[in-house]
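Write out the 3D structure for:
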Amino acid sequence: MKYRMLGRTGIEVSPYCLGAMMFGAMGNPDHDDSIRIIHRALDAGINFIDTADVYSGGESEEIVGKALKGRRDDVVLASKVHYPMGDGSNHRGNSRRWIIAAVENSLRRLQTDHLDLYQVHRPDPMVDVEETLSALSDLIHSGKVRAIGASSFPASEIVEAQWVAERRGLERFRTEQPPYSIVNRSIEREVLPICQRYGMGTLVWSPLGQGLLTGRHRKGRQIDTHRSGGMPQHFSDERKLDVVEQLVPLAEKAGLPMTHLAMAFAIAHPGVTSAIIGPRTMEQLEDLLAGADVTLDEEILDRIDEIAPPGTDAGPNDVAYTPPAVSEVSLRRRPVAERSAT
């Protein structure tokens, strides 16, 4: 497997990053099986693992920690902080108070004395970014963290964080972890170019479009929703399904499974360092590993651009970050009395 530089950190990582979200109660509750999957990925040349404290309430980190016994030095290990880890109102977010506590919990679960990459899982509009960067800088200076990054930050907040770090003499975000796939290409407009401008590495999540780009979910076909307890919204999104219907014959003509087409597309962009795969089973991992060396030619990439134009989303990403300015009605509507007065 050919390795790539993670931004300007000097750290080399594989173009596939093993995402650990599916290890634990959220996906595969069998620890031994999950560890076998991790070991298989490492044996195949993947040297980058991404997890988060919130995945299965810390269980994912515990599984990864057990899997890396005796192999820790060979792995670039990343985790994240932000989401609630308990009922306490201060056991969440991007405050110094929580970051300092959360990293200690993650290190304990992962059975390591440092993280190669520690990421802010989502923006926190209630916390000054200087507060967050100051805490993360102290973790770097103490040796508990090697590099810091963000996840799903809008372009404007990526730039703001870079400026704040420069003005205040703080450590800066070295990576960004945004969603990216054939059906969600909006980061090509600003996020990826900005990351390239600042020399940031990018590890993109959901390269399979939350499962849509496996080719198993098609128009007019019954979808097995037993595991999820209901049909996710994106599985019934006609705009995305229209894209899938056009991609299936393209993949067949190229002699590729849909998963290989989707993954090869994600890592073809010069602004993408690594694409996160999130297998729940060994079978899923083996399928993805089989396509690790696939390269798409210009003709196929041109056809994908026709089907899903660059810089556009075929439909919203159900789990992507939505800024409060969009999600909160009170922030995008003047009060009735004020509108009436004008």
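The chain has one domain: 4-341.
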